[in-house]
Amino acid sequence: MTRTVRGANVLITGAAAGMGRMYAELAVEEAAASVVLWDRDAAALARVADELGEKSRGRTGIRSYVVDVSDLGGIAKTAQKTRKEVGTPDILFNNAGIVRGNAYFWESDSGDDTRPTMQVNALAPMYIAREFLPGMIALGRPSRIVNIASAAGTLGNPRMAVYAASKAALIGWSDSLRIELEQAGHDHVKVVTVTPSYISTGMFAGARGPMLTPILEPEVVVERVWQAMLDGRPLVELPASVRLARILRAVLPTRVFDRVVGDGMGVYRSMERFTGRPAQPPVA
Q1: Terminal C-alpha separation, the chain
Q2: Does residue 204 register a pLDDT over 90?
Q3: Can you tell me which family this protein belongs to (predicted)?
Q4: Are 66 and 40 in contact (CB under 8 A)?
Q5: CA 49, CA 61: separation in Å to the nearest integer?
Q6: Which residues contact 173 (CB under 8 A, 6 or more apart)?
Q7: pLDDT over 70 at 208, yes or no
Q8: Active-site residue 163, yes or no?
Q9: Where are the chain's structural domains?
Q10: What confidence score (pLDDT) does residue 278 get?
Q11: Helix%, strand%, coil% for the chain, nearest 5
Q12: Which one of 23, 65, 163, 268 is the catalytic residue?
């Protein structure tokens, strides 16, 4: 892939706000052929599409689709419409995600919390990639699938058990898909797995960054992820302490890790004051 996305078709889920919108803005700045926006929030999606259209000045085609990615049927229908109206994406950002509650697992409402979290964070990226991957393979040109996971998927953390489970599933699938594509000789399609710690987008309002793990600014994350996408880098860990924690988890006995990293560095207390957004918008 060249050093920009000029001339490429870019699809972004969760594109109506936050970092999804920022990825879309970068794609427009680099004169992508088309930027396809998926989100559930129709009003916000329409605003973003209009603003990006004005910014692109006709250089980039902006298409928006209202879709709830927790709905398998909705994904299939929207993917079919996208292929018909725009074509196969060269770059897919599986960016949409949700986090629910600040309670221990047994205190949460399993129906309201577990099912949508797993559907949006873990299953939707798989379904969406499955819709477009055959076309990306067949095109034979450099392509990317960028899966936005979380550091929470690399180690357990109290008060976010289901979220951690959903991101662990995403990480496992994402890296397995990368290896499958390489083994099958389809290495023009590269998979990038992203595991950031807390980001100051409002999604994790109230969460505290553990020792050596500051709350990340979204602009920094987007810039790093964008560069990794262009490079086709397999894994993006932000900040560096995420990798350190993963290494310590592998080498330390469980109880030692709990004391040194979990309690000592504050990882296990990071969600105690979590509030999230005051009124979260509909799920992308």
Answers
A1: 28
A2: no
A3: Belongs to the short-chain dehydrogenases/reductases (SDR) family.
A4: yes
A5: 10
A6: 122, 125, 126
A7: no
A8: yes
A9: 9-269
A10: 53
A11: 50, 15, 35
A12: 163
Q: Is the pLDDT of residue 212 over 70?
A: no
For residue 277, the model assigns a pLDDT of 58
Q: Quick one: DSSP state of residue 283?
A: P
- For residues 136 and 90, the answer to whether their CB atoms sit within 8 Å is yes
Sequence-separated (6 or more) residues with CB below 8 Å from residue 175: 191, 193, 234, 235
User: Is residue 147 within 8 Å of residue 229, measured between CB atoms?
Assistant: no
Closest C-alpha to 284, from 91, 78, 131, 106: 78
Strand segments, DSSP code E, in the chain are: 9-13, 34-39, 61-66, 91-94, 143-148, 189-196, 235-238
Q: 126 exposed, middle or buried (CB, 10 Å; 0-12, 13-18, 19+)? A: middle
Give me the architecture of the 9-269 domain, per CATH: 3-Layer(aba) Sandwich (3.40)
What value, to the nearest 5°, has the Cα angle with vertex 87 and ends 47 and 79?
A: 70
Determine the 3-state secondary structure of 236 from DSSP.
Answer: strand
pLDDT of residue 103: 84
Of 191-200, 257-266, 274-283, give the range with the top mean pLDDT. Answer: 191-200
Lookup: tokens for 284: 């992308």
pLDDT(203) > 80: no
Closest by CA position to 207, among listed 281, 107, 275, 121:
275
Q: Is 182 helix (H, G, I), strand (E, B) or coil?
A: helix
Encode pLDDT of 151-198 as tens digits. 999 988 888 899 999 999 999 999 999 999 999 999 999 999 999 988
The per-residue DSSP string of 118-165 comes to HIIIIIHHHHHHHHHHHHHHHH-S-EEEEEE--GGGTS--TT-HHHHH
**223, two tokens:** 């810039």
